[in-house]
Amino acid sequence: MNSALRLPRATPLWTLTLLALLFWGAFNQLQQRAWFSAACRSQARPDGQFEDLAPDAPPLPAVYLDNDSLYWLHNAAGLLAGGSWRPRHTDWDNAPWGRANHWSSPLIWGMAGSARLAALFTDRPAAELLPVVSPWINPVLFALFLIATAIFLGRRFDPWIAGLLVLSLATLPPILRSFGVLHIDHHGLIDIPALWMPLFLLLGITGDRRSGRGWFWAAGVMGGLGLWLQASHQLIPIAGTLFALLLWALFSRPPLPAAKGVAADDPLAPGPWRIWAGAGALVSLAAYALEYAPAHLGLQLEVNHPLYALSWWGGAEAVLAIAGARRERNWTPRRLAVLAAGALPAVVTLLLIRRGPEQWFMVSSPFLLRICEQIKEFQPLLGTLRGVNPLLLFLLFNTLPLIALLGIGLAFSRTLPVRERLGLHLALAALLPAFGLCLRHARYSSLLAAALWTTAAAVFLALSRLPPRRKGRWLPPALLAGGCATGLLLTLAPLANPRLPFMPVDRWVPQMLQRDVARELATLPGFPAGGVLCSYNLAPALQAFAGAATTGGLYWENTPGLRAAAEFFAATDDAEARRLLRERDIRWVVLEAKPGSEKTWVYARHGAGPRPDPRATLAFRLAAPGRAPAWLEAVPPETIPLAAKAAYRVYRVR
Predict the structure, then answer these.
(1) pTM of the prediction?
(2) 637-649 residue pLDDT tens
(3) Strands 632-634 and 648-653
(4) Do residues 104 and 296 touch, judged by C-beta distance below 8 A?
(5) Which residues pair with 633 in a beta bridge?
(6) Four-CA torsion 384, 388, 394, 396, nearest 10 degrees
(7) Cβ neighbours for 477, distance < 8 A, ≥ 6 positions apart
């Protein structure tokens, strides 16, 4: 065992890791207690407030941070009920036909497997235990992830620094959200490769040749798994790494000739980097076959695809060809051929995304882009924090941005060994696209947190190779320790609210209201039968809590259902709108009648071009009593007081 893992030298590392685990366990336990005691024991009232249930009343269904959790539970329940082990279709959206599902399967397997395992030790069926055990998968996974990360860091870092890095990872708010007990989702799974692939590369670059190849292999496997879990997430650190290697190959000084019989110390030696790219590409290809072969192969570039594996592998070979040509000052025909062939998959992929048919990359659809503008996670990070203290933006990533600024200065230090300097360049290059994407879309905040944390690790690894200095050597560890303390305080701050400790009130209250509205609508005679055309935000609650098939969940696979809702509510021709309902066998229409909502529907349907008068649309007419077409029968508000108070208009199709 490495001496860094032995006591007493490793005592600081394991003490701080234990502190991180204790904090993590307490944080999730308190969230779980608030989740059950508040959300499951409270119900909405027509006056917009909430009241506790009677002591002997059964608990209400749980609510989560967002609607994705309901879909994951639905897919896992389908697997337990004998459905496909690769759920490629869901009947919840795009009524009455359903839609394709391209979420990766490992989380669904884990949820169903955990429920079946729990059923072995109880007398309850696995389907009943599914919502009980599923919320704890991500917290347990993160605890194991922290322990493993501590082991990896202990092999190369000072024990105090390694421990503080583990603690900082446990107190980063974007990471906390991904792995929290209220978040049944794959975001935790996709954050692990985004954190470990750059870390393993860093350990491989700065290690000896014998152990380095193992780290490169592990980094490639992590990258391939990341492409499987969510390609749009993992492609960012992969592309950032390739870009950093390209810049290094073009502008760094070639390695000095070594003594006779001794190999030159070239950090861009082809062997390790071929292991990284080759292992990653092979894992990605194997995962693609596991998920989609043989019946669901196709050109869906929103998710893992062989073109991404080939682009990664070919891109690495192209960069290595450039590095070899510059090192030897010789462009041979073979190197030119490797460069052209290596770059070809990436060029083809970009052309297919930019110029191919819409169905090959639905995310680029103008209609879907307009819909995404209404979703909070697709809004700029600064926009989502509008109206709050600007200090929160800094606290969101603790003090890691300041450590990254130190890394920029260190990256140009002439006294830093070449391998540590390359590690810093790789970390900083992966940080730039994550930062740009996060400014544009808040959903990438966990990716930015992962990149900042990896940069901090690269900074401390570089500092350990510099000559010791008395002045200022305390500053980086102090910044890291201060960031840990900041993260702990920021996370514990919600305890000041006695009713909702650790609960994200802005998300929790609307989710509860939608649940109770859906349960109220389910009592209407005949409501679960037939499809429901409704506002996008209410669709998952109607599906999960009222048993209804709707036109809409906010997912790119559901573009036809989303477009049908926009066409209906933005329609000015009653005959065309009625034809759409008949075509889809829609029996109910539910509209969230907020002021100005008709403009949102018109914009989603028509964009910025020529548009009809919003006051002539069905959305505007259905929001006011007595203006609906004769083939829509309004449900009286006194029949559905909670839905009426929440500004929902409900119509039965005649």
Answers:
(1) 0.91
(2) 999 999 999 999 9
(3) antiparallel
(4) no
(5) 652
(6) -60
(7) 160, 161, 164
